[in-house]
């Protein structure tokens, strides 16, 4: 029998036989790593993968496995089970896990070139990778925790959890930028450099000094209040800023891919990190617009009169301020004990064991480097720590004689009412998308594709008496859309927040960027 010469039938010949629709159907079902490999096979496969990932995507998962290695594997397997190209990642872990080890495990899997921030918040919010149940989890604490030297009495599995968020944002560039503090005295926090670095990055990518959005994580000792106030002054009002001002963190340096510890070098320590999102002016044709939106649920209620700070003593080393005050329009100074008694009399028995704050209206000079000096007027909250027969004691500094302030107290009824208002706002927001897309059809209509929530560690089930209250406005309005978040030690929220706390008219124009007993929602939308 005469032999025949067979034509080689390699991969390329097989590829050519697959129709575009079938090919796209196949790559849609691939996990992320296989999807990335498929995109490198040929131009037609790359184009098919491009059609699958033509819109932004946010994925999130939680694991409660007591083993850190297994928990990290659980969330990564869940998120990477579908096509996604990681443009950034945020991992939040429980205090019983090692922060540096968790960061290294995630970075090894996602790659050192991906901007990654790993933090240890006061709790996590998200969907279980296995049960798909949505949970708001705060870490377990014991009465012994109130004593600094007392050992923790917790179960072996307590506080062992991880929440991972991975985002893909075509048409945007993302980078991590550090806020540095000098280790040696006078331990200057380099706020101007931090703001300038953010503006320089945004300018290089978009041609605009102000980025689209910033997600921040800061150490509680960083003085984030002053940082966000200066950012509010220096950046366009359109720039959204959200985050947690009271956590430890690690992050991957976007420039050289190194994994940064808290100590950057012998001279500086990193006290905060910003995940900066800038619109790429060179984005490919056909890529739509990703937008960021914020809304706030407040859990504070004002009480009593408006006061003016009289004598002020800044106890910088103790991070507190001693002050006396007078009611507006009167000359007589009032001591701390009398002031608090007036507040308790005003409050009556409407609420038991409230946490008190004073909201101080501050007008301060502000400038960045050698730029022209301007003024900012802001509202800053200071926790009331106590009183004596002479002074009222409050947290933090930067209160000056003549500053006006009012008392606020934590209030679950106000928070529930505010959360309902957020639900109404999100429903109206969603309806406006549909009403505005009458001329579009099919997949071209605007859509919300993801959200993040930063809520106060004082809220949660113990505050409301019910689980998942803070998450419900987003989950009910955007069912099936990814939502992840954390409980914070000071929630950052800057933007058009539509405040849901009743303020006097004179304070309507006063901006507040660092909140207490609130929930800050970041909503991500995409318009083709």
TrEMBL record:
Residues in FIST C-domain domain copies: 339-495
Record GO biological process: positive regulation of proteasomal ubiquitin-dependent protein catabolic process; protein polyubiquitination
Highest rank taxon of the organism: Eukaryota
InterPro entries: F-box-like_dom_sf, F-box_dom, FIST_C
Name of the protein: FIST C-domain domain-containing protein
